[in-house]
Here is the input.
Amino acid sequence: MFVFFRFVPGKHERSSMFKFRALLISVLSCASFVTSVVSLAQNTSPPPGPHKGLPEKVIIDTDIGDDIDDAFAVALALRSPELEILGITTTFGDTETRAKLLDRFLVEVGRPEIPVAAGVPTTPKSNFTQRRYAENNRFSKPSHPDAVGFLLDQIRRNPGQITLIAIGPLVNVGAAIDKDAGTFHKLKRIIMMGGSIKRGYGDLGFGPPTPPQPEWNILNDILSAQKLFAAGVPLFVMPLDSTQLKMDELKRAFLFSQGTPITDALTILYHQWGQETPTLFDPMTIAFLVHQSLCPVEPMHIRVDAQGFTRPDPGPVNAPNPPNAQVCLESNPDAFFRFYLNRVAAP
Here is the structure.
């Protein structure tokens, strides 16, 4: 017998949610708004699905709790039947509180069976905006297994079958390579959000170009990033060039008005994040895994330098470097959001 629990938000969270829904009701009463939403999320079909087969075994490595895009990425993975989530590991900063956030999130959306493991904590360098969600939590486990040990153990049990989705600083990745490079090499592939090849932060493909910059996930563990790009595991990279996907007011209002367990949880986390327009960097990794046409890749040799830049490095003409990554430099935001909203907002 399976029993699913629906979490009842606390007083402050209910108040925030009710006020937000009241605003949505007034907004949604506008016919033009409804027409736009329906056109966005229903009338245009999402990209075609992949060939049917066994679900893809995945582990998600995340720094959920600071920026909001990690939560949106986990939500997309949970709503993707093409994926079998073997576990979620937390990385960077207060990893135990990140794990508690996931404990609550997974219970609220009816997936408490998914294991959560905590990485080695590091000195916090960012604002844990969703800490109250994690700490106001009667579902958190008393402790969590070690993320690196969990990852390596799952690879040993499923050699050549696991896709690691890395959407945070690469602390756990580097530690796993150091601990057992042979086992790490038995990953099927890694899909990561990270790097900046031709476009930096704020460059959305129009207006004055912004040159490449050290990207957050790479910059916060440069040595681990260098180890990963040299590891020889098939690597698919979603850099800033293709992941600066702005979730505007129209899309947010549509998603948050659905009233499902997963959209209610995202609504609470969004309000605790405390900013207006999310950039959905991380969900592109999940979208790519399910529908690779959403972010076409090309082979490149990437070198991570000492400052955290991810530099294309073809090598000399007479001895070019072989590709060490498949990199997506261009994506279609409209196609991405049609896919995302249809998938996550579905009842």
Notes: The longest strand covers residues 83-90.
